[in-house]
UniProtKB/TrEMBL annotation:
Protein name per its UniProtKB record: Osmoprotectant transport system substrate-binding protein
GO CC annotation: ATP-binding cassette (ABC) transporter complex
Organism field: Microvirga lupini
InterPro entries assigned to the protein according to its UniProt record, in alphabetical order: ABC_Gly_betaine_transp_sub-bd
Species lineage: Bacteria, Pseudomonadati, Pseudomonadota, Alphaproteobacteria, Hyphomicrobiales
Domain annotation ABC-type glycine betaine transport system substrate-binding: ranges: 14-288
GO MF, any single term: transmembrane transporter activity
Amino acid sequence: MLSNTPSFAHGHHPIVIASKADTEGVLLGSMIAIVLEREGIPVETRLQLGPTQQVRKAILQGEIDIYPEYTGNGAFFHSLESDPAWKVPASAHELVKRLDAERHRLAWLDRAPANNTWLIAVRGDLARRSNLTTMDDFAQAVRASMNLRLAASAEFVGSPAALASFEATYGFHFPRDRIAVQPGGNTMTTMRAAAQNIGGVNAAMVYGTDGAIATLDLVVMKDTRGAQIVYEPAPVVRAEALERFPKISKALAGVFASLSTAKLQALNAEIVVEERPARDVAERYLDQLHRRPGG
């Protein structure tokens, strides 16, 4: 767990910033921390705090004040998985923003235009040879009994919102005996299995902003029919903390607005491929952003 010494400048208790344990969570948590530090706001960091439910519980109990979350997770927080609003970026953000404000006094700030949803990627050589670019193409290949073997997490295989949603939307059934189920949800494991053809695997569960997709020469199958819930990252902050430091909202808005899917893929790649520390990557990006006209 990463933490720093809390600063008690201006007589205020610090804003406690957390993140989930994954690469992108630490990157975005680091950005939030650096931006708030530069605004003169006292901060304490608890990055890599744990998985979604642990971090969510911490903010609901007031143990932390702010962390980066994904709009689509609101579907599960509020038991509204079947609501079509979660598949539309603007409505997903508005819905979770309203529900969390009403029920938990949590404020969702401006989101990034980057979708970190579940997707399926295929080895580049196979995708090019077989003209596979969309989930329609992938479904047709499955129906034609192409020799596909998929690496995925147990959650991806078992959740009605993941593989089952792709199957229902595109009209195919992926044989379960052709799935190499990986422990945990680490997409580096699934991507490497496909890229290196481990155990005959040639397709992988990935996330939309994964940094190693291009490096490993994987081709993401475009979800043209919107089978998946939209997962756009945004800072979630306790209303009480936002009232103490109202400038948090404006300070973070421009940063998150600048983070496209391609930009997050590139930043994540600096961490997972080039093995640079997340805070260094975040700091350099914010410096570049600040130097741009209007940045």
